[in-house]
Specification:
The termini are close together. The chain has 2 domains: 211 residues, Glycogen Phosphorylase B (Rossmann fold); 187 residues, 3-Layer(aba) Sandwich (Rossmann fold), CATH 3.40.50. Helix 13 links the parallel strand 13 and strand 14. It has 411 residues and is an alpha/beta fold. The protein contains 16 helices and 14 strands. An 8-stranded mixed β-sheet has the order 3-4-2-1-5-6-7-8, with helices on both faces. The protein has a 6-stranded parallel β-sheet with strand order 11-10-9-12-13-14, with helices on both faces. The protein binds 1,5-anhydro-D-fructose (NHF). 1,5-anhydro-D-fructose (NHF) binds next to helix 1.
Protein backbone atom coordinates (compact mmCIF):
# COMPACT_ATOMS: atom_id res chain seq x y z
CA UNK A 1 0.00 0.00 0.00
CA UNK A 2 0.99 3.59 -0.48
CA UNK A 3 0.17 5.30 2.77
CA UNK A 4 -0.11 9.06 3.34
CA UNK A 5 0.50 9.53 7.05
CA UNK A 6 -0.43 12.81 8.76
CA UNK A 7 0.91 13.25 12.29
CA UNK A 8 2.07 16.52 13.85
CA UNK A 9 4.81 14.75 15.86
CA UNK A 10 7.47 12.78 14.06
CA UNK A 11 11.17 12.01 14.26
CA UNK A 12 13.27 13.91 15.23
CA UNK A 13 10.77 16.30 16.86
CA UNK A 14 9.09 14.07 19.44
CA UNK A 15 6.80 15.40 22.14
CA UNK A 16 5.22 12.31 23.69
CA UNK A 17 3.90 8.82 23.06
CA UNK A 18 2.26 9.82 19.78
CA UNK A 19 5.59 10.74 18.16
CA UNK A 20 7.19 7.50 19.34
CA UNK A 21 4.23 5.56 17.97
CA UNK A 22 4.31 7.34 14.61
CA UNK A 23 8.05 6.92 14.14
CA UNK A 24 8.14 3.23 15.07
CA UNK A 25 5.00 2.23 13.17
CA UNK A 26 5.94 3.88 9.89
CA UNK A 27 9.34 2.18 10.03
CA UNK A 28 7.57 -1.13 10.46
CA UNK A 29 5.19 -0.47 7.54
CA UNK A 30 8.19 0.16 5.31
CA UNK A 31 9.88 -3.00 6.58
CA UNK A 32 6.72 -4.93 5.69
CA UNK A 33 6.96 -3.66 2.11
CA UNK A 34 4.66 -0.63 2.13
CA UNK A 35 5.42 2.93 1.03
CA UNK A 36 4.95 5.67 3.59
CA UNK A 37 4.84 9.42 3.04
CA UNK A 38 4.69 11.40 6.28
CA UNK A 39 3.41 14.95 6.67
CA UNK A 40 4.45 16.55 9.92
CA UNK A 41 4.84 19.92 11.62
CA UNK A 42 8.07 21.70 10.86
CA UNK A 43 8.29 23.67 14.09
CA UNK A 44 11.84 24.88 13.42
CA UNK A 45 14.33 24.61 10.65
CA UNK A 46 13.89 21.02 9.67
CA UNK A 47 14.18 19.93 6.05
CA UNK A 48 10.94 20.36 4.15
CA UNK A 49 11.43 17.09 2.24
CA UNK A 50 13.75 14.26 3.17
CA UNK A 51 14.09 10.49 3.22
CA UNK A 52 14.83 8.77 6.47
CA UNK A 53 14.87 4.97 6.79
CA UNK A 54 13.09 4.83 3.42
CA UNK A 55 10.25 6.98 4.76
CA UNK A 56 9.49 10.10 2.73
CA UNK A 57 8.93 13.01 5.11
CA UNK A 58 7.35 16.36 4.26
CA UNK A 59 7.49 19.26 6.69
CA UNK A 60 5.96 22.32 5.00
CA UNK A 61 7.34 25.63 6.25
CA UNK A 62 4.58 27.26 8.25
CA UNK A 63 4.20 30.99 8.65
CA UNK A 64 3.32 32.79 11.88
CA UNK A 65 -0.41 33.66 11.63
CA UNK A 66 -0.87 34.38 15.33
CA UNK A 67 -1.71 38.07 14.83
CA UNK A 68 -4.48 37.39 12.34
CA UNK A 69 -6.20 34.44 14.02
CA UNK A 70 -7.69 36.36 17.00
CA UNK A 71 -9.56 38.58 14.52
CA UNK A 72 -11.85 35.83 13.33
CA UNK A 73 -11.75 32.80 15.63
CA UNK A 74 -14.42 31.86 18.17
CA UNK A 75 -14.42 33.05 21.80
CA UNK A 76 -13.37 29.58 22.95
CA UNK A 77 -10.10 29.90 21.04
CA UNK A 78 -9.50 33.51 22.05
CA UNK A 79 -9.35 32.25 25.63
CA UNK A 80 -6.25 30.28 24.68
CA UNK A 81 -4.28 33.54 24.93
CA UNK A 82 -0.72 33.11 23.68
CA UNK A 83 -1.47 29.41 23.05
CA UNK A 84 -3.54 30.53 20.09
CA UNK A 85 -0.22 30.62 18.24
CA UNK A 86 -0.08 26.86 18.72
CA UNK A 87 -3.52 26.49 17.19
CA UNK A 88 -2.62 28.64 14.23
CA UNK A 89 0.63 26.67 13.71
CA UNK A 90 -1.34 23.45 13.76
CA UNK A 91 -3.85 24.82 11.29
CA UNK A 92 -1.07 26.02 8.97
CA UNK A 93 0.69 22.67 9.13
CA UNK A 94 -2.55 20.91 8.26
CA UNK A 95 -3.55 23.21 5.42
CA UNK A 96 -0.10 23.29 3.83
CA UNK A 97 0.29 19.52 4.16
CA UNK A 98 -3.10 18.81 2.60
CA UNK A 99 -2.27 21.20 -0.21
CA UNK A 100 1.19 19.73 -0.80
CA UNK A 101 -0.24 16.23 -0.85
CA UNK A 102 -3.06 16.96 -3.26
CA UNK A 103 -1.81 19.82 -5.42
CA UNK A 104 1.81 18.84 -5.60
CA UNK A 105 2.33 15.13 -5.09
CA UNK A 106 -0.88 13.88 -6.66
CA UNK A 107 -1.78 16.51 -9.26
CA UNK A 108 1.65 17.79 -10.27
CA UNK A 109 3.88 14.78 -9.77
CA UNK A 110 1.17 12.26 -10.69
CA UNK A 111 1.75 10.15 -7.61
CA UNK A 112 -0.82 7.57 -6.45
CA UNK A 113 -1.79 6.84 -2.86
CA UNK A 114 -4.09 4.17 -1.43
CA UNK A 115 -4.96 5.45 2.00
CA UNK A 116 -4.90 8.51 4.21
CA UNK A 117 -3.99 7.86 7.83
CA UNK A 118 -4.42 10.87 10.13
CA UNK A 119 -3.76 11.12 13.82
CA UNK A 120 -5.68 13.01 16.51
CA UNK A 121 -7.28 16.45 16.09
CA UNK A 122 -3.79 17.82 15.45
CA UNK A 123 -4.02 16.36 11.94
CA UNK A 124 -7.80 16.38 11.81
CA UNK A 125 -8.06 19.44 9.57
CA UNK A 126 -5.92 17.72 6.92
CA UNK A 127 -8.01 14.56 7.14
CA UNK A 128 -11.30 16.42 6.79
CA UNK A 129 -10.01 18.71 4.00
CA UNK A 130 -8.70 15.74 2.02
CA UNK A 131 -11.93 13.80 2.47
CA UNK A 132 -13.75 16.83 1.07
CA UNK A 133 -11.45 17.11 -1.91
CA UNK A 134 -10.69 13.50 -2.86
CA UNK A 135 -12.46 10.17 -2.85
CA UNK A 136 -9.62 8.46 -1.01
CA UNK A 137 -10.32 6.19 1.94
CA UNK A 138 -9.20 7.67 5.23
CA UNK A 139 -8.63 6.31 8.73
CA UNK A 140 -8.76 8.59 11.74
CA UNK A 141 -6.51 7.35 14.56
CA UNK A 142 -7.69 8.51 17.96
CA UNK A 143 -4.83 8.44 20.46
CA UNK A 144 -6.68 10.69 22.87
CA UNK A 145 -9.69 13.05 22.90
CA UNK A 146 -10.31 16.36 24.59
CA UNK A 147 -12.98 15.04 26.99
CA UNK A 148 -10.50 12.45 28.29
CA UNK A 149 -7.35 14.62 28.24
CA UNK A 150 -9.07 17.39 30.15
CA UNK A 151 -11.34 15.19 32.29
CA UNK A 152 -14.54 17.04 31.52
CA UNK A 153 -13.16 20.47 30.62
CA UNK A 154 -11.25 21.38 27.49
CA UNK A 155 -11.90 23.29 24.32
CA UNK A 156 -15.21 23.04 22.46
CA UNK A 157 -13.46 23.77 19.17
CA UNK A 158 -11.04 20.88 19.65
CA UNK A 159 -13.94 18.57 20.55
CA UNK A 160 -15.76 19.59 17.37
CA UNK A 161 -12.67 19.02 15.21
CA UNK A 162 -12.37 15.56 16.73
CA UNK A 163 -16.01 14.75 15.99
CA UNK A 164 -15.83 16.13 12.46
CA UNK A 165 -12.71 14.03 11.84
CA UNK A 166 -14.54 10.95 13.08
CA UNK A 167 -17.48 11.78 10.81
CA UNK A 168 -15.28 12.32 7.75
CA UNK A 169 -13.21 9.16 8.23
CA UNK A 170 -14.23 5.79 6.83
CA UNK A 171 -12.86 4.03 9.88
CA UNK A 172 -11.51 4.96 13.28
CA UNK A 173 -8.69 3.19 15.07
CA UNK A 174 -8.21 3.76 18.76
CA UNK A 175 -5.63 2.43 21.18
CA UNK A 176 -7.57 0.47 23.83
CA UNK A 177 -10.99 -1.01 24.56
CA UNK A 178 -11.27 1.45 27.39
CA UNK A 179 -10.96 4.29 24.87
CA UNK A 180 -13.44 2.60 22.54
CA UNK A 181 -16.02 2.41 25.36
CA UNK A 182 -15.36 6.01 26.25
CA UNK A 183 -15.78 7.17 22.63
CA UNK A 184 -19.05 5.26 22.34
CA UNK A 185 -20.27 6.87 25.57
CA UNK A 186 -19.55 10.26 23.94
CA UNK A 187 -21.63 9.32 20.91
CA UNK A 188 -18.85 8.38 18.45
CA UNK A 189 -20.07 5.87 15.83
CA UNK A 190 -19.53 2.41 17.34
CA UNK A 191 -19.53 0.64 13.95
CA UNK A 192 -16.53 2.64 12.71
CA UNK A 193 -14.31 2.02 15.74
CA UNK A 194 -11.54 -0.60 15.70
CA UNK A 195 -9.10 -1.19 18.55
CA UNK A 196 -5.44 -1.69 17.81
CA UNK A 197 -3.02 -1.49 20.71
CA UNK A 198 0.32 0.32 20.49
CA UNK A 199 3.48 -1.74 20.21
CA UNK A 200 7.18 -1.32 20.90
CA UNK A 201 10.51 -2.51 19.60
CA UNK A 202 11.31 -5.40 21.93
CA UNK A 203 14.90 -5.71 20.71
CA UNK A 204 15.62 -2.13 21.64
CA UNK A 205 13.73 -2.27 24.94
CA UNK A 206 15.54 -5.27 26.32
CA UNK A 207 17.94 -5.91 29.19
CA UNK A 208 20.26 -7.27 26.48
CA UNK A 209 20.47 -3.81 24.95
CA UNK A 210 21.52 -1.79 27.98
CA UNK A 211 24.58 0.40 27.99
CA UNK A 212 25.62 -0.33 31.60
CA UNK A 213 28.17 2.47 31.70
CA UNK A 214 25.28 4.95 31.26
CA UNK A 215 23.49 3.17 34.12
CA UNK A 216 26.58 3.63 36.30
CA UNK A 217 26.77 7.33 35.36
CA UNK A 218 23.12 7.72 36.32
CA UNK A 219 23.75 6.06 39.68
CA UNK A 220 26.48 8.62 40.34
CA UNK A 221 24.43 11.52 39.05
CA UNK A 222 21.46 10.66 41.27
CA UNK A 223 23.69 9.56 44.18
CA UNK A 224 22.16 6.10 44.38
CA UNK A 225 23.89 3.60 46.65
CA UNK A 226 21.92 0.59 47.86
CA UNK A 227 18.54 2.32 47.66
CA UNK A 228 15.68 0.71 45.76
CA UNK A 229 14.68 2.83 42.77
CA UNK A 230 11.10 3.79 41.90
CA UNK A 231 10.90 5.35 38.43
CA UNK A 232 8.34 7.50 36.62
CA UNK A 233 8.95 8.53 33.01
CA UNK A 234 6.45 10.67 31.11
CA UNK A 235 5.11 14.08 30.38
CA UNK A 236 4.99 16.22 33.52
CA UNK A 237 1.33 17.04 33.33
CA UNK A 238 -1.32 16.51 36.01
CA UNK A 239 -3.33 13.91 34.06
CA UNK A 240 -0.36 11.53 34.35
CA UNK A 241 -1.03 11.41 38.10
CA UNK A 242 2.32 12.99 38.98
CA UNK A 243 1.05 15.21 41.81
CA UNK A 244 -0.53 12.19 43.50
CA UNK A 245 2.65 10.24 42.94
CA UNK A 246 4.66 12.91 44.74
CA UNK A 247 2.05 12.96 47.55
CA UNK A 248 2.47 9.19 47.81
CA UNK A 249 6.24 9.43 48.35
CA UNK A 250 6.16 10.28 52.11
CA UNK A 251 3.67 7.45 52.60
CA UNK A 252 6.05 4.96 50.98
CA UNK A 253 9.00 6.35 52.94
CA UNK A 254 7.14 5.71 56.22
CA UNK A 255 7.43 2.01 55.45
CA UNK A 256 10.52 1.79 53.24
CA UNK A 257 13.22 4.30 54.18
CA UNK A 258 15.82 3.21 51.67
CA UNK A 259 14.11 4.25 48.45
CA UNK A 260 14.95 6.75 45.75
CA UNK A 261 12.23 8.18 43.53
CA UNK A 262 13.21 9.28 40.04
CA UNK A 263 10.80 11.40 38.04
CA UNK A 264 11.92 12.08 34.50
CA UNK A 265 10.12 14.13 31.88
CA UNK A 266 9.19 17.53 30.58
CA UNK A 267 5.91 19.33 30.90
CA UNK A 268 3.98 22.39 31.95
CA UNK A 269 3.58 21.21 35.58
CA UNK A 270 7.30 20.81 36.34
CA UNK A 271 7.68 23.85 38.59
CA UNK A 272 4.52 23.13 40.59
CA UNK A 273 5.60 19.55 41.00
CA UNK A 274 9.00 20.60 42.27
CA UNK A 275 7.40 22.99 44.76
CA UNK A 276 5.10 20.27 45.99
CA UNK A 277 8.01 17.88 46.50
CA UNK A 278 9.98 20.58 48.35
CA UNK A 279 7.05 21.36 50.62
CA UNK A 280 6.69 17.67 51.48
CA UNK A 281 10.33 17.56 52.51
CA UNK A 282 11.16 14.54 50.39
CA UNK A 283 13.95 15.96 48.21
CA UNK A 284 16.58 13.76 49.88
CA UNK A 285 14.83 10.75 48.37
CA UNK A 286 13.52 12.37 45.21
CA UNK A 287 15.03 13.47 41.93
CA UNK A 288 12.86 15.39 39.49
CA UNK A 289 14.65 15.85 36.19
CA UNK A 290 12.98 17.94 33.54
CA UNK A 291 14.98 17.18 30.46
CA UNK A 292 14.59 15.40 27.14
CA UNK A 293 16.94 12.41 27.26
CA UNK A 294 17.77 10.24 24.27
CA UNK A 295 16.51 6.70 23.93
CA UNK A 296 19.68 5.00 25.22
CA UNK A 297 19.52 7.04 28.37
CA UNK A 298 15.82 6.28 28.77
CA UNK A 299 16.57 2.58 28.44
CA UNK A 300 19.30 2.98 31.07
CA UNK A 301 16.75 4.57 33.44
CA UNK A 302 14.50 1.54 33.10
CA UNK A 303 17.49 -0.73 33.73
CA UNK A 304 18.25 1.20 36.92
CA UNK A 305 14.72 0.87 38.31
CA UNK A 306 13.34 -1.73 40.70
CA UNK A 307 9.78 -0.68 40.04
CA UNK A 308 8.18 1.64 37.49
CA UNK A 309 5.09 3.63 38.32
CA UNK A 310 2.65 5.28 35.90
CA UNK A 311 -0.31 6.41 38.00
CA UNK A 312 -2.23 8.18 35.21
CA UNK A 313 -5.64 9.56 36.09
CA UNK A 314 -6.65 9.05 32.46
CA UNK A 315 -4.52 7.27 29.85
CA UNK A 316 -5.70 6.00 26.46
CA UNK A 317 -2.79 3.58 26.17
CA UNK A 318 0.52 4.52 27.85
CA UNK A 319 3.54 3.30 25.87
CA UNK A 320 5.94 3.85 28.80
CA UNK A 321 4.46 0.95 30.69
CA UNK A 322 5.10 -1.36 27.73
CA UNK A 323 8.70 -0.13 27.68
CA UNK A 324 9.10 -0.86 31.39
CA UNK A 325 7.54 -4.31 31.01
CA UNK A 326 9.80 -5.11 28.06
CA UNK A 327 12.69 -4.15 30.37
CA UNK A 328 11.41 -6.80 32.84
CA UNK A 329 10.31 -4.33 35.48
CA UNK A 330 7.25 -4.74 37.69
CA UNK A 331 4.85 -1.90 37.06
CA UNK A 332 2.33 0.00 39.18
CA UNK A 333 -0.28 1.61 36.95
CA UNK A 334 -3.33 3.84 37.13
CA UNK A 335 -6.25 1.58 36.25
CA UNK A 336 -9.28 3.73 36.97
CA UNK A 337 -11.43 5.48 34.35
CA UNK A 338 -10.06 5.57 30.81
CA UNK A 339 -7.02 3.33 31.09
CA UNK A 340 -5.17 1.40 28.43
CA UNK A 341 -2.68 0.62 31.20
CA UNK A 342 -5.29 -1.61 32.83
CA UNK A 343 -5.42 -3.69 29.66
CA UNK A 344 -1.64 -4.05 29.45
CA UNK A 345 -0.88 -5.02 33.03
CA UNK A 346 -2.18 -8.28 34.54
CA UNK A 347 -2.58 -7.58 38.28
CA UNK A 348 -2.92 -11.11 39.70
CA UNK A 349 -2.50 -14.83 39.06
CA UNK A 350 0.21 -16.81 37.31
CA UNK A 351 0.91 -14.15 34.65
CA UNK A 352 0.93 -11.16 36.98
CA UNK A 353 3.07 -8.23 35.79
CA UNK A 354 2.25 -5.59 38.37
CA UNK A 355 -0.29 -3.71 40.44
CA UNK A 356 -3.40 -1.71 39.51
CA UNK A 357 -3.99 1.46 41.54
CA UNK A 358 -6.29 4.44 41.55
CA UNK A 359 -4.19 7.31 40.19
CA UNK A 360 -6.46 9.81 41.91
CA UNK A 361 -5.52 8.52 45.37
CA UNK A 362 -1.99 8.97 46.80
CA UNK A 363 -2.75 6.34 49.47
CA UNK A 364 -3.54 3.81 46.81
CA UNK A 365 -0.44 4.66 44.78
CA UNK A 366 1.70 4.30 47.92
CA UNK A 367 -0.02 0.98 48.65
CA UNK A 368 0.79 -0.26 45.12
CA UNK A 369 4.45 0.74 45.35
CA UNK A 370 4.70 -0.89 48.78
CA UNK A 371 3.20 -4.11 47.45
CA UNK A 372 6.17 -4.35 45.07
CA UNK A 373 8.78 -3.20 47.59
CA UNK A 374 7.45 -5.75 50.13
CA UNK A 375 7.78 -8.55 47.56
CA UNK A 376 10.86 -7.69 45.57
CA UNK A 377 11.90 -11.30 44.95
CA UNK A 378 8.44 -12.26 43.73
CA UNK A 379 8.25 -9.03 41.72
CA UNK A 380 11.23 -10.12 39.61
CA UNK A 381 8.90 -12.80 38.26
CA UNK A 382 6.26 -10.12 37.55
CA UNK A 383 8.91 -8.31 35.52
CA UNK A 384 9.68 -11.43 33.50
CA UNK A 385 5.97 -12.02 32.96
CA UNK A 386 5.74 -8.44 31.71
CA UNK A 387 8.36 -9.02 29.02
CA UNK A 388 6.65 -12.23 27.95
CA UNK A 389 3.34 -10.40 27.71
CA UNK A 390 4.85 -7.65 25.57
CA UNK A 391 6.53 -10.15 23.27
CA UNK A 392 3.28 -12.05 22.78
CA UNK A 393 0.83 -9.18 22.50
CA UNK A 394 2.50 -5.85 21.83
CA UNK A 395 5.23 -6.39 19.26
CA UNK A 396 5.48 -3.74 16.55
CA UNK A 397 5.00 -6.44 13.95
CA UNK A 398 1.67 -7.59 15.40
CA UNK A 399 0.36 -4.07 15.87
CA UNK A 400 1.46 -2.96 12.38
CA UNK A 401 -0.20 -5.96 10.75
CA UNK A 402 -3.46 -5.37 12.60
CA UNK A 403 -3.47 -1.71 11.56
CA UNK A 404 -2.69 -2.57 7.95
CA UNK A 405 -5.60 -5.02 7.93
CA UNK A 406 -7.95 -2.18 8.81
CA UNK A 407 -6.46 -0.07 5.98
CA UNK A 408 -6.73 -2.98 3.53
CA UNK A 409 -10.37 -3.50 4.37
CA UNK A 410 -11.06 -0.09 2.79
CA UNK A 411 -9.31 -0.70 -0.52
O1 LIG B 1 0.09 5.84 24.28
C1 LIG B 1 0.14 6.89 21.50
C2 LIG B 1 -0.15 7.70 22.75
C3 LIG B 1 -0.79 6.86 23.89
O2 LIG B 1 -1.80 7.05 26.06
C4 LIG B 1 -1.04 7.76 25.09
C5 LIG B 1 -1.63 9.07 24.74
C6 LIG B 1 -1.32 9.68 23.41
O3 LIG B 1 -2.27 9.72 25.56
O4 LIG B 1 -0.99 6.22 21.03
O5 LIG B 1 -1.03 8.72 22.39
Amino acid sequence: MKIAFFCWEFWPRLVGGLGTYATEMTRKYVELGHEVTVFTLNGGNYQTREFWNNIEIHRPMILDCSKIFPLFVREDLKKWGHHLKFFSDIFSYNYLSASKFLNHLIKKEGRKFDIISFHDWLSGFAGVILKNNTKMPAVFHIHSVEEQRCMGGGSEVVKEIERESAKAADKIITVSYSMKDFLISLGYPREKINVVYNGIDTEKYSLKNVNWSIVEDLRKRYRIGDEKVVLFIGRLTWVKGIFNLVRAIPLVLEKHKNVKFLILGKGENYTDLLHLAQSLNIMKNTEIRSEWVDENERIAHYALADVCVFPSISEPFGIVSLEAMAMEKPVVVGARGVSGLREQVIPNGENRCGVHVNGEDPNDIAWGINVVLDNLEEAKKWGKNGRKRVLENFSLEKVAKETLQVYESLL
